[in-house]
């Protein structure tokens, strides 16, 4: 009957989409230039089915990137953001960096087909988390208030992505990245006249 | 004769290339999505001639971006980089920002067809200038030495481009950008334990 057939079809489509997104995330995280054919093969679907859901490679990359960010955003729920805003920020950077580093190749894929504004827009969830912490830090007089909140949030975003670029270019090692990001972002958030924190102060 | 004809042909090609690069820089600085046809028309050459020199739009954008950076790099020769490294850095940021802002639309065009690594590679000249200043500031114990020089140079690069992104997104006004960049970069370069400079200290 039509009433049972349509939901079954929809469930099939949902399963296809989920398999495609998982395969795209996985394939692009290994090779930023993974082709649509490779991704269809890894997902166990035909190219026609894949193109039925994602009409272009750019749309597929966009969806896979959004998928990875959503999963990462959920994973960051476990980070303790209470207490001293600087220490909370250092914990958030440590955990966020693990995700950025894990999806570094997917980020390259996204950067090569999506404009920077779209990449930042896809980070809306994680950036709202940063924004709340920045606002609390400003209210507690620990982060600088002479620069706009959106600017400070954007600075953290670009410094994290800069670390990914530096690793890709062979100028930075993965194990040093989190410390470089934390030291830089904490310094950038410190109010004028106050001393820049040493990383050891936050241990 | 062949010996005189070839140089004449070469001179013609040189003139064509120069006209195409000027037109591409100009057109893409107004509209990051300017088409190859528009650029050919503005340069007063045919599409076939343009494609003879630049086989793809990406190659044309790459060349126009390189052309703009080269001109900008030459313009920065007039910036006084002597004296207190913080004040020298503030002057360099002010002058560099005028260029980034002027070519903001061309940067968007470049970001949509070139990977971040290529964009940074095209900035090799300007970044070497920053690197020399960072090294001097470190030697004079004014900039932090606990982070690699390449990291500090990359931080300045990404914070400047972040400002362009923020303006494009409508979150920052052009007149506030230079102060945001200078405040952020100077804080990021300050050694741990030292006070973050206020912008007014550098006037």
From TrEMBL, chains A, B:
Xref: Pfam families: TetR_N
InterPro entries noted in UniProt: Homeodomain-like_sf, HTH-type_TetR-like_transc_reg, HTH_TetR, Tet_transcr_reg_TetR-rel_C_sf
DNA-binding region: 35-54
Keywords per UniProt: DNA-binding, Transcription, Transcription regulation
PROSITE patterns: HTH_TETR_2 (PS50977)
Domain HTH tetR-type, chain residue ranges per copy: 14-72
Superkingdom classification of source: Bacteria
Keyword Lipid metabolism: no
PANTHER family attached to this UniProt entry: HTH-TYPE TRANSCRIPTIONAL REGULATOR BETI (PTHR30055:SF234), HTH-TYPE TRANSCRIPTIONAL REGULATOR RUTR (PTHR30055)
Protein name: TetR/AcrR family transcriptional regulator
